[in-house]
Each structure stands twice: as C-alpha cells, then as structure tokens.
DNA sequence: GATTGTAGTGATGTTAACATTACGACATGG
DNA sequence: CCATGTCGTAATGTTAACATCACTACAATC
C-alpha cells in the first residue's frame, strides 16, 4: 500500500469501476443476498448513472464469480453450493501452492514485510466482517508478493467468492474464528520469511482446511497430515 | 460435442458473443498483429453493429488475456514477452496438474473417449494453424473431463494466450511440430485411460516443456527429468 | 533553443431512447 | 380438469447521439 520513493501511476478510473466496487460492497454487506436479482435499472437509478456503466460493472462482477448472468435473464448474486465450495477449495489450494513457491523464490523483503503488516491488522479487527476483509487482504499480499500477474488474476477470479465463503463461515462460529486465525497467519509469515517451503506449504494447507472444515461439519481440527485439498467430489 | 440422450440447453447468444468470436478469430488469423490497436468504431463498422456489443466483446477478450485496455486509451492486442510466456507456462502447469488429477479421479469413460477423439483429429491436421487449434481443443477436452467449473474458467482465462503462444511456435519449427505432437498426445490419452496418475502427470509436464523449449532456445528435447515448469524468473 | 501553454483531433466514456426477448397470467379448447 | 395458445409486462439487448478525455502538433514565452 504505502510505498516510499515510487509514485503510483495515478490512473483515472471510470464509472464502471466505481459501480462495481459499490455493488460488490453491497453484496458483502448483505444488501443483496445470494440468489437475489441485480436489475440494471434499479442499480442505475440508485447510483444515479446510466445503464451502460452498470452493465459493464455487472460483467466485471461476473468475471469475479460474484454474479451469474444469462441471456435476457439478468444477473443474480452467486449462491455457493457444497460442490462450489469444494471447487473453490481445490482451485485455491493449487493457486496458493504456486504462489507460496513463487514468494519463497522471488519475493523481496519489502514484499514479505507487506504481508507481515497485513497479518498485524488482523489483531485489531473487532468485527467478523472486518476480520474477513483482513483475511482476504492477507492473501492479496501473498499473491502480490508472488510477482506473477496471471496468477494474481486467477486469484482475483475467485477472490470474491472466497470472501463470500468466509462470510458464511463467521455465521457458523465467529468466536473461534476471531481468536485463532490471527496466530495462524503469524506462523504463515514466519515460514515465509524463513523461506521454508515445506513448512509454509504445510501451514497454508492446514489453514485452508480449518476454514473448509467449519462449514462441512467435520470438527476434528487436529489430526491433519498432508492430504491437501486436492480433490473435488464431482457433480 | 455429440452427446447422446441429453439435449443441449439451447441457449441464445447475443451479438457481443458473436463479435468476440469474430475478433478472436481475426487475431489468430493474423489480421490484427500483437500490439495492434482495436478501435471500437472500426470494428463496429466492419461488423455492422453498434459500439455497445463491440465494447462488451472487447471486455470479454480482455478477460481472456487476448487484449489489454487502459482508460480512454482503447484496446490493443496482447504482446507476449518472455516473462509472459514463463508466467503462462507455470500457471498452466499448475492448472493442468489439478486437471489431470481430477480427470483420473472423477472422469467418466465417455469423457476420456472425447479426449481420444480430440487426439484423433490432430493426425488429420495439414496446416500449422489447424494443428494449433487441435492442440487447444485437446486440452479443452481434458479440462472438460475434469468436471470442475472454476478450473475450466481459469483455463479459459489463459487459453487464448496459449493459443497465441503456440502460433508463434509454428513459426519457429513447424515441421517438427506437425510430426511429433500427435504421438505425444496419443500417449497422454493412454496414461489417462489407464488412470495412471504418476505417468500422466509426467507426460503432461514434458509435453509442456517441449513447447516451452522451442521458443526459449534450449534445444535438448531429451534429458528431461521431472523439474516441472514450476518456476518463473521474476520481472 | 528548450520548455511550457494551448488548441485540434480522434478516440473512448456516457447517456437515453428504441427493439427484442422471456416469463407469467389469463383465456380458450380438448 | 388439464393442456395449449395468446397477450401483457418488465426486464435485458441494441442503437445512435452527446460528453469527456488523452495525445499531438504548434506557437508563445523565457
């Protein structure tokens, strides 16, 4: 975030980006529940813009997997089934595997410091929603440190869905989440800083497994070896 | 392609999809070289549609990584640098790794038969461009057999770029490409059908390495062990 | 003479009106 | 009473005109 010496390219964003951000935040805030319809006229009226930018924003949210749309049937907020969550888990596992290797191989010390800062912010989180935001921000930092544009884009394609997934998690057990998660990320940073690939990969895997288990019901958070999330029950 | 018993949902596509297909094909045909500008008015005039669908199509192509666009600066055809190719190789390696495991675990016999058919079509390819199309189609079939929506989407996000990459390859050595590649895919199908994970993963890795080596210059196509493409020289 | 200010131009961004489509309600016929 | 056909409505798809922006060339100033 706060780089020193280098100036940000100072890009100017269009209305579509703004609209996409607002709608995304509205979804995460619960204004639009999963399965709800996102009508173009309604959004354009509420945000006081024309339907063009709204259309473009919806297309962008579709790219993020936050929204599904069909021909002449409009856009609806994505509803995550159990197979969806399994897909997210396995794909995220594969992407993170590459990301961690990249970080250990090529990341600068500043990059890892940025990850550390993201982990710091988690401890100041009071609210469940805020904790989720910090969690996502942490992984954002990891992918940023990987210095791999396409990998980062692949992460952004599921990022919002993971956000949605974590949001349902805090409904299940917010107390446990708020307590244990910060420490978990701390150890991730330690492994990353030590450039210990094996340990880091292992920790990231168990980290994902914790989140995954809460929603699937199996509550034995220990007794985890190294099977990874590499499998998806087919439809 | 030709499923029996099940009927296709009979979707109706919009103009934007049509435009995206045309422009994509035009890029692959060399009408628009890498780095060329894609002007909205020019395209809308040539295809006899308004700028709306063109805009939407360009957004779609940007999602596929075939096009890059900046604010008020329009869209240009992506130019692949060496680091881009390295990124594509590593990300594709990771995705294919998951795909192969998924196929071996969950694919039906019909799915593998479809992959087999795709491999068949390669032997009838006479032209370099056609061979590339078959090559891509083969991998499409593999990802389809994986039965993993988000994995398939992640592949589609780099699919066109890989296509572009393979296109530059046939410029380097079309003869060798046309001869050896079909056999290579044959053995991939055999390993998949036998559900032999280790062999399949190995073969897919060397398959990627062949394509990668031709463009990077190192011409020792043998002496390949199992280092995988798991690394990217950072920028 | 190099730098800075300033229009011109050609593109993209945005808007509002028009066309087309899908879905549901209702009526009609078997 | 169920099935089929028709119509209305409310949304999306498409279009063309308008507004804004970035780049270039040129001129004025120091």
From TrEMBL, chains A, B:
Domain HTH gntR-type: residue ranges: 13-80
One Pfam family linked to the record: GntR
Statement: the UniProt record of this protein carries the keyword Transmembrane: no
Molecular function terms, GO-annotated: DNA binding; DNA-binding transcription factor activity
Keyword Disulfide bond applies: no
Keywords from the UniProt entry: DNA-binding, Transcription, Transcription regulation
Superkingdom per UniProt: Bacteria
CDD domains on file: WHTH_GntR
Listed InterPro entries: GntR_C, TF_FadR/GntR_C, Tscrpt_reg_HTH_GntR, WH-like_DNA-bd_sf, WH_DNA-bd_sf
Location of the region described as Disordered in the Swiss-Prot/TrEMBL record: 216-235
Name assigned to this protein: GntR family transcriptional regulator
Species of the source: Streptomyces sporangiiformans
């Amino acid at each position: 975030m706060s780089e020193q010496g280098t100036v940000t390219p100072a890009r100017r964003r269009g209305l579509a980006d703004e609209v996409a951000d607002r709608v995304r935040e509205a979804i995460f805030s619960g204004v639009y529940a999963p399965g709800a319809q996102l009508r173009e006229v309604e959004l354009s009226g509420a945000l006081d813009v024309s339907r063009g930018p709204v259309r473009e924003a919806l297309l962008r949210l579709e790219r993020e997997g936050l929204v599904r749309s069909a021909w002449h049937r409009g856009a609806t907020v994505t509803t995550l089934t159990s197979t969806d969550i399994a897909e997210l888990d396995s794909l995220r596992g594969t992407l993170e595997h590459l990301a961690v290797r990249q970080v250990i191989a090529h990341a600068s010390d500043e990059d890892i410091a940025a990850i550390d800062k993201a982990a710091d912010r988690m401890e100041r989180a009071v609210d469940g929603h805020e904790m989720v935001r910090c969690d996502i921000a942490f992984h954002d930092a990891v992918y940023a440190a990987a210095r791999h544009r396409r990998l980062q884009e692949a992460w952004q394609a599921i990022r919002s869905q993971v956000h949605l997934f974590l949001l349902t998690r805090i409904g299940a057990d917010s107390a446990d989440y708020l307590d244990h998660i910060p420490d978990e990320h701390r150890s991730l940073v330690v492994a990353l800083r030590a450039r210990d690939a094996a340990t880091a990969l292992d920790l990231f895997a168990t980290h994902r497994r914790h989140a995954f288990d809460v929603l699937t019901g199996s509550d034995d958070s220990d007794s985890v070896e190294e099977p990874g999330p590499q499998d998806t029950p087919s439809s």
